[in-house]
Amino acid sequence: MRLNKFLSTAGVASRRKCDELIKDGKIYVNGKVQANLGTIIDEKKDVVEYLGERVNLPSSFIYLKMNKPKGYACTASDEKGRKTIFDLLEDKSVRLFNVGRLDYDTEGLIFLTNDGEFANSVIHPKFQIEKEYIVTVEGAMKESEFAVLRKGAVVDGERMPSARVNPISFDGKVTKLSVIITEGQNHQVRRMFEAIGRDIKLLKRVRIGSVHLGNLYRGKTKPMTADEIASFLK
Ligand code: URA
Protein backbone atom coordinates (compact mmCIF):
# COMPACT_ATOMS: atom_id res chain seq x y z
CA MET A 1 0.00 0.00 0.00
CA ARG A 2 1.25 3.53 -0.72
CA LEU A 3 2.47 5.27 2.41
CA ASN A 4 0.07 8.23 2.09
CA LYS A 5 -2.90 5.92 1.62
CA PHE A 6 -1.81 3.82 4.60
CA LEU A 7 -1.58 6.92 6.83
CA SER A 8 -4.94 8.32 5.77
CA THR A 9 -6.64 4.94 6.08
CA ALA A 10 -5.11 4.61 9.52
CA GLY A 11 -6.85 7.83 10.52
CA VAL A 12 -3.78 10.04 10.90
CA ALA A 13 -5.39 12.78 8.76
CA SER A 14 -6.86 13.36 5.30
CA ARG A 15 -4.77 12.17 2.33
CA ARG A 16 -3.59 15.71 1.52
CA LYS A 17 -2.55 16.40 5.09
CA CYS A 18 -0.74 13.03 5.18
CA ASP A 19 1.18 14.06 2.05
CA GLU A 20 2.34 17.17 3.93
CA LEU A 21 3.40 15.12 6.96
CA ILE A 22 5.46 12.83 4.72
CA LYS A 23 7.09 15.75 2.85
CA ASP A 24 7.86 17.48 6.16
CA GLY A 25 9.80 14.41 7.32
CA LYS A 26 7.39 13.62 10.15
CA ILE A 27 6.84 9.97 9.20
CA TYR A 28 9.23 7.15 10.08
CA VAL A 29 9.24 3.76 8.37
CA ASN A 30 11.26 1.05 10.14
CA GLY A 31 13.04 3.71 12.18
CA LYS A 32 14.03 6.00 9.30
CA VAL A 33 12.43 9.24 8.06
CA GLN A 34 10.52 8.50 4.86
CA ALA A 35 9.86 11.68 2.86
CA ASN A 36 8.91 10.03 -0.43
CA LEU A 37 5.17 10.22 -1.17
CA GLY A 38 5.17 7.21 -3.46
CA THR A 39 6.81 4.81 -1.03
CA ILE A 40 5.13 1.43 -0.96
CA ILE A 41 4.95 -0.26 2.40
CA ASP A 42 3.96 -3.71 3.52
CA GLU A 43 1.31 -2.86 6.11
CA LYS A 44 1.71 -6.24 7.81
CA LYS A 45 5.48 -6.07 8.28
CA ASP A 46 6.67 -2.46 8.14
CA VAL A 47 6.63 -0.31 11.26
CA VAL A 48 5.26 3.16 10.51
CA GLU A 49 5.55 5.83 13.21
CA TYR A 50 4.17 9.34 13.65
CA LEU A 51 4.85 11.48 16.71
CA GLY A 52 6.74 8.59 18.28
CA GLU A 53 3.78 6.22 18.09
CA ARG A 54 3.21 3.23 15.84
CA VAL A 55 0.46 3.81 13.27
CA ASN A 56 -1.95 0.90 12.81
CA LEU A 57 -4.91 0.39 10.54
CA PRO A 58 -8.07 0.75 12.63
CA SER A 59 -10.24 -2.30 13.08
CA SER A 60 -13.34 -0.20 12.40
CA PHE A 61 -14.14 3.25 11.11
CA ILE A 62 -16.05 5.92 12.95
CA TYR A 63 -18.00 8.75 11.35
CA LEU A 64 -19.58 11.42 13.54
CA LYS A 65 -21.36 14.65 12.85
CA MET A 66 -21.06 17.43 15.41
CA ASN A 67 -22.82 20.71 16.00
CA LYS A 68 -19.75 22.77 16.84
CA PRO A 69 -20.47 25.67 19.18
CA LYS A 70 -18.74 29.08 18.93
CA GLY A 71 -15.61 29.32 21.04
CA TYR A 72 -14.05 25.97 20.19
CA ALA A 73 -11.01 25.39 17.98
CA CYS A 74 -10.99 22.70 15.30
CA THR A 75 -7.66 21.17 16.20
CA ALA A 76 -6.37 18.29 18.29
CA SER A 77 -4.33 20.64 20.49
CA ASP A 78 -4.65 24.40 20.34
CA GLU A 79 -1.41 26.38 20.61
CA LYS A 80 -3.27 29.15 22.46
CA GLY A 81 -4.64 26.65 24.99
CA ARG A 82 -8.26 27.25 23.95
CA LYS A 83 -11.00 24.66 24.22
CA THR A 84 -11.17 22.32 21.23
CA ILE A 85 -13.98 20.36 19.64
CA PHE A 86 -12.33 17.18 20.96
CA ASP A 87 -13.06 18.35 24.54
CA LEU A 88 -16.73 17.91 23.62
CA LEU A 89 -16.45 14.20 22.80
CA GLU A 90 -17.82 11.83 25.39
CA ASP A 91 -15.61 8.94 24.27
CA LYS A 92 -12.04 10.20 23.96
CA SER A 93 -10.46 6.74 23.64
CA VAL A 94 -10.44 6.60 19.80
CA ARG A 95 -8.23 8.95 17.80
CA LEU A 96 -10.41 10.98 15.43
CA PHE A 97 -9.72 14.05 13.35
CA ASN A 98 -11.96 16.80 11.98
CA VAL A 99 -12.85 16.82 8.29
CA GLY A 100 -12.01 20.36 7.22
CA ARG A 101 -12.35 23.24 9.67
CA LEU A 102 -14.68 25.82 11.04
CA ASP A 103 -13.28 29.05 12.52
CA TYR A 104 -13.18 29.42 16.31
CA ASP A 105 -16.23 31.73 16.14
CA THR A 106 -18.19 29.72 13.57
CA GLU A 107 -20.76 27.19 14.66
CA GLY A 108 -22.51 24.30 12.99
CA LEU A 109 -21.90 21.08 11.13
CA ILE A 110 -18.51 19.38 11.12
CA PHE A 111 -17.58 15.72 10.62
CA LEU A 112 -15.12 13.75 12.75
CA THR A 113 -13.67 10.45 11.59
CA ASN A 114 -10.67 8.12 11.62
CA ASP A 115 -11.09 7.40 7.88
CA GLY A 116 -8.72 9.59 5.89
CA GLU A 117 -10.08 8.38 2.56
CA PHE A 118 -13.58 9.49 3.55
CA ALA A 119 -12.20 12.87 4.67
CA ASN A 120 -10.51 13.22 1.31
CA SER A 121 -13.76 12.66 -0.57
CA VAL A 122 -15.44 15.39 1.47
CA ILE A 123 -12.75 18.08 1.31
CA HIS A 124 -10.87 17.58 -1.94
CA PRO A 125 -11.82 20.48 -4.27
CA LYS A 126 -12.19 18.14 -7.25
CA PHE A 127 -15.35 16.68 -5.70
CA GLN A 128 -17.00 20.12 -5.48
CA ILE A 129 -19.00 19.23 -2.35
CA GLU A 130 -21.48 21.98 -1.47
CA LYS A 131 -21.26 23.62 1.93
CA GLU A 132 -24.19 25.75 3.03
CA TYR A 133 -23.91 28.48 5.65
CA ILE A 134 -26.45 30.72 7.33
CA VAL A 135 -24.91 34.17 7.60
CA THR A 136 -26.33 36.84 9.89
CA VAL A 137 -25.43 40.49 9.22
CA GLU A 138 -26.71 43.74 10.66
CA GLY A 139 -29.19 45.82 8.64
CA ALA A 140 -30.71 45.21 5.22
CA MET A 141 -28.64 43.94 2.30
CA LYS A 142 -28.70 45.73 -1.06
CA GLU A 143 -29.30 43.88 -4.33
CA SER A 144 -25.91 45.20 -5.55
CA GLU A 145 -24.19 43.47 -2.62
CA PHE A 146 -25.83 40.16 -3.52
CA ALA A 147 -24.61 40.62 -7.10
CA VAL A 148 -20.98 41.08 -5.97
CA LEU A 149 -21.10 38.03 -3.70
CA ARG A 150 -22.67 35.89 -6.42
CA LYS A 151 -20.12 36.85 -9.05
CA GLY A 152 -17.17 36.46 -6.68
CA ALA A 153 -16.06 39.31 -4.43
CA VAL A 154 -12.51 40.60 -4.98
CA VAL A 155 -10.31 40.35 -1.86
CA ASP A 156 -6.75 41.79 -1.96
CA GLY A 157 -6.84 41.71 -5.76
CA GLU A 158 -7.94 38.06 -5.78
CA ARG A 159 -11.41 37.04 -6.94
CA MET A 160 -13.22 34.75 -4.52
CA PRO A 161 -15.01 31.79 -6.12
CA SER A 162 -18.61 32.56 -6.99
CA ALA A 163 -21.27 31.59 -4.47
CA ARG A 164 -24.99 30.94 -4.38
CA VAL A 165 -26.35 33.64 -2.10
CA ASN A 166 -30.02 34.05 -1.21
CA PRO A 167 -31.85 36.11 1.41
CA ILE A 168 -33.78 34.18 4.07
CA SER A 169 -35.21 36.90 6.30
CA PHE A 170 -34.93 40.51 7.49
CA ASP A 171 -36.56 41.36 10.82
CA GLY A 172 -35.93 45.12 10.66
CA LYS A 173 -32.56 44.69 12.41
CA VAL A 174 -30.64 41.76 11.00
CA THR A 175 -30.58 39.93 7.68
CA LYS A 176 -30.14 36.18 7.42
CA LEU A 177 -28.81 34.74 4.20
CA SER A 178 -28.02 31.33 2.80
CA VAL A 179 -24.55 31.10 1.25
CA ILE A 180 -23.54 27.98 -0.68
CA ILE A 181 -19.92 27.43 -1.70
CA THR A 182 -18.08 24.46 -3.11
CA GLU A 183 -14.55 25.55 -2.28
CA GLY A 184 -13.25 25.94 1.18
CA GLN A 185 -10.37 28.38 1.27
CA ASN A 186 -9.50 29.66 4.74
CA HIS A 187 -12.10 32.03 6.19
CA GLN A 188 -13.74 32.14 2.79
CA VAL A 189 -17.21 33.28 3.81
CA ARG A 190 -15.89 35.91 6.22
CA ARG A 191 -13.52 37.21 3.55
CA MET A 192 -16.36 37.44 1.01
CA PHE A 193 -18.38 39.60 3.38
CA GLU A 194 -15.36 41.70 4.40
CA ALA A 195 -14.91 42.46 0.71
CA ILE A 196 -18.31 44.17 0.64
CA GLY A 197 -17.62 45.90 3.98
CA ARG A 198 -19.96 43.70 6.02
CA ASP A 199 -19.21 42.27 9.41
CA ILE A 200 -20.68 38.80 10.01
CA LYS A 201 -22.53 38.60 13.34
CA LEU A 202 -23.04 34.86 13.22
CA LEU A 203 -21.78 32.21 10.84
CA LYS A 204 -23.29 28.76 10.99
CA ARG A 205 -22.75 25.79 8.67
CA VAL A 206 -25.98 23.89 8.16
CA ARG A 207 -25.17 21.43 5.38
CA ILE A 208 -22.27 19.52 3.80
CA GLY A 209 -23.25 17.78 0.55
CA SER A 210 -26.61 16.19 1.28
CA VAL A 211 -26.00 15.94 5.05
CA HIS A 212 -27.95 18.47 7.11
CA LEU A 213 -27.18 19.70 10.62
CA GLY A 214 -30.82 19.07 11.50
CA ASN A 215 -31.79 19.42 15.14
CA LEU A 216 -28.52 18.26 16.67
CA TYR A 217 -27.94 20.21 19.90
CA ARG A 218 -24.96 22.56 20.16
CA GLY A 219 -21.86 20.69 21.34
CA LYS A 220 -23.39 17.27 20.63
CA THR A 221 -22.30 14.58 18.18
CA LYS A 222 -24.12 11.70 16.60
CA PRO A 223 -23.04 8.87 14.30
CA MET A 224 -23.60 9.51 10.60
CA THR A 225 -26.01 7.12 8.92
CA ALA A 226 -24.83 4.60 6.32
CA ASP A 227 -26.58 6.63 3.60
CA GLU A 228 -24.90 9.84 4.74
CA ILE A 229 -21.46 8.21 4.63
CA ALA A 230 -22.16 6.56 1.27
CA SER A 231 -23.28 9.85 -0.28
CA PHE A 232 -19.61 11.00 -0.33
CA LEU A 233 -18.15 7.75 -1.57
CA LYS A 234 -19.88 7.55 -4.94
N1 URA B 1 -15.87 30.34 5.99
C1 URA B 1 -15.42 31.09 7.01
O1 URA B 1 -15.10 32.25 6.82
N2 URA B 1 -15.33 30.52 8.22
C2 URA B 1 -15.69 29.27 8.49
O2 URA B 1 -15.60 28.83 9.63
C3 URA B 1 -16.16 28.50 7.42
C4 URA B 1 -16.24 29.05 6.17
What descriptors fit this protein?
234 residues; alpha+beta; Structural Genomics Hypothetical 15.5 Kd Protein In mrcA-pckA Intergenic Region, Chain A; Alpha-Beta Plaits; 3 domains; nine-stranded mixed sheet; four-stranded antiparallel sheet; 6 helices; 15 strands; 29% strand; elongated; binds uracil
Order of helices and strands: HHEEEEEEEHEHEEEEHEEEH
CA distance, first residue to last residue: 22 Å
In the CATH hierarchy, the architecture of the largest domain is: 2-Layer Sandwich
Globular, elongated, flat, extended or rod-shaped: what is the shape? Answer: elongated
Bound molecules: uracil
DSSP summary, beta strand count: 15
- Count of DSSP helices? 6
Q: Give the rounded overall mean pLDDT.
A: 92
Question: What's this, in brief?
Answer:
With 234 residues, the chain is of the alpha+beta class.
